[in-house]
Each structure stands twice: as structure tokens, then as C-alpha cells.
Design goal:
The chain is of the alpha+beta class. The chain has 2 domains: about 100 residues, Orthogonal Bundle (Arc Repressor Mutant, subunit A), CATH 1.10.10.10; about 180 residues, Trna Endonuclease, Chain: A, domain 1, CATH 3.40.1350. The strands form 2 sheets. The protein has a 7-stranded mixed sheet. It has a two-stranded antiparallel ribbon with strand order 1-2. α2 packs across α3. The longest helix has 17 residues. The chain is globular, with a radius of gyration of 19 Å. The model has no long low-confidence stretch (mean pLDDT about 90). InterPro entries: Replic_Relax (IPR025855). This is Replication-relaxation family protein. Pfam families: Replic_Relax.
């Protein structure tokens, strides 16, 4: 495969950072130049974007690693392209990259999840939206990510590193509130009123069910292993047959691939399945 031209790669790097908020050069290479042996082309593109006036990207360094994000000028440039599906999320890439807490590791785990889906051709990296607010009667639901899958369905994705089990169950309740929110608008004889998820995800004839809810358990310091947290979550989670909840660990997702049987379905035992075999909500 021929290497992308410099201007094309700069544009793709900028759009990717705008969508995902931050990334390392290694992550950008995995998404944009997977057949390259090194990150030289990506780093050159990043330097070119940094040299613009005003700079379109910024970076921070921690533990001999560089973390890159869009500046406000870069976000405006990306938005002006018309290639972004929605406005960027609430938390800026600069804040995440500079974070001394787990916020940066959480953001990087989300990008690693995007890479796993992209490499398995389960979803393209351009088909992700990060931290998009969804209205519920109890306030906004803000998923870590929403992805359009290759089969045309959508999925909500939550990355867990440090959330308490009570917090995880509260997330499930918030998704249930979103699923069951009352319809808005008046509708008409040909089309009854719909709620937000139906307008956004169900399609014109309501042929698609409520999106899958995917939990990816990632490692964190001073926390139980992801496998342990995943098992404890299944012990505590009450099956909701109107929402399909599937879980995996980031390690298993990266090692085996998002298109392999790495997903365990809440309420369906310990066996793992491919994502396409997940049961549809009733």
C-alpha cells in the first residue's frame, strides 16, 4: 500500500484527534497506517500540524510518551471540514492529555478499544462518537462512546477502570431510563410519536432494536484485575431483557479481536460469544 500523501495524512490525523480527543503516535499509526513498521509518517504529520499558525494540535509528555490532541483552532478546522458526525464531547483532549489522574488512561483505553474494533472490521474508526449527551427524564446520559457497527446497528460503549460496582449498576439504570423515556412530539396518523433513541437509532420503520450496551473492563492501579471486576459485575447486574448488555476485558479484546467470541452477555451464563450472536432485546 502506498503511503498516504502528507496533506491527506495531516487531515486524517486532525479528524481522528477531533473524534477521539487524544491519542499517542502508536495509536494513530494503528488506525491510519497499519502496514507501516514505524510511526515516522504519523509523527511528521503531527509536527506539521503543530507548526501551523495557530497550531492545530498540541501535545504533552509523560513517562517518555507523547499524547496529542486538537487545539481549539484544530477543532474548528476539523468541524469546518464537515467530516465530523457531531460536536466534540464535554471533556477536551488537552485536559485529558495533561491529567495526572486516571482520566488520560481512560481516554487511551477508549482509543485502544476503537483500534480493536477497527482492526477486526467490526466498525471503522470514523464511525465513533465520544461523550455525546442523550436526554433522559433524570438528566443527560453521556456514554463514553457510541459506535456505528458494520452491520448497520449501533452500540453504546463504556470503558470501566475505577467505577464502583454501585456506579456501574447506576449506569445500567440510566440506560434503562433512556430506553423507557416517554415519546416527544405529537406524531401523526402515519407516524406515532417517538422518544430520542427511536428517532436516533431505530431507523425509519423502527426495525432496529435498542443499541447494544458494551462494557470494556480495563486495568487500573490499586483496583482488582479486569477479569475479577467483570465477573463481579455479572454477579450483581440484574438482566434487563429490553437492553442487551455485553462485557469483555480490554486485554482479551486486544488479544483476540472484537470479532471473536470475547463477549459475555449479562443473564446468559459464562459462555462468550461473537458480537453478532448477541441476543436482541425483547
Amino acid at each position: 500500500m502506498a503511503t498516504k500523501a502528507g496533506a491527506d495524512l495531516c487531515g486524517e490525523v486532525l479528524l481522528t484527534l477531533a473524534r477521539l480527543r487524544l491519542a499517542t503516535p502508536r495509536q494513530l499509526k494503528a488506525l491510519l497506517l497499519p502496514h507501516q513498521q514505524d510511526t515516522d509518517h504519523v509523527r511528521r504529520a503531527l509536527r506539521n500540524l503543530l507548526a501551523e499558525s495557530p497550531a492545530l494540535v498540541g501535545r504533552t509528555h509523560r513517562a517518555q510518551q507523547s499524547y496529542w490532541y486538537c487545539t481549539s483552532a484544530g477543532l474548528a478546522e476539523a468541524a469546518a471540514s464537515g467530516e465530523l458526525a457531531s460536536p466534540v464531547g464535554r471533556t477536551t483532549g488537552k485536559r485529558i492529555a495533561a491529567s495526572k489522574t486516571g482520566l488520560r488512561e481512560h481516554g487511551l483505553a477508549l482509543v485502544d478499544t476503537v483500534i480493536a474494533f477497527h482492526q477486526a472490521e467490526v466498525a471503522d474508526h470514523a464511525d465513533w462518537q465520544v461523550e455525546v449527551a442523550h436526554p433522559t427524564p433524570a438528566g443527560n446520559l453521556v456514554p463514553d462512546g457510541v459506535v456505528l457497527l458494520a452491520d448497520g446497528s449501533s452500540a453504546f460503549v463504556e470503558i470501566d477502570r475505577t467505577t464502583s460496582y454501585a456506579g456501574l449498576l447506576a449506569k445500567l439504570e440510566r440506560y434503562d431510563a433512556y430506553r423507557n423515556a416517554p415519546a416527544s412530539g405529537h406524531g401523526n396518523a402515519a407516524r406515532p410519536p417517538r422518544n430520542h433513541w427511536q428517532e436516533t437509532y431505530a431507523g425509519p420503520s423502527l426495525e432496529r432494536p435498542f443499541p447494544l450496551l458494551l462494557f470494556v473492563f480495563a486495568p487500573a492501579k490499586r483496583r482488582a484485575a479486569p477479569e475479577t471486576r467483570e465477573a463481579a459485575f455479572h454477579d450483581r447486574a440484574r438482566p434487563n431483557w429490553r437492553i442487551t448488555v455485553a462485557t469483555t476485558t480490554l486485554h482479551q479484546l486486544i488479544r483476540d479481536g472484537a470479532n471473536r467470541p470475547v463477549w459475555r452477555i449479562v443473564g446468559h451464563g459464562e459462555d462468550r460469544r461473537v458480537l453478532t450472536a448477541a441476543p436482541s432485546p425483547r
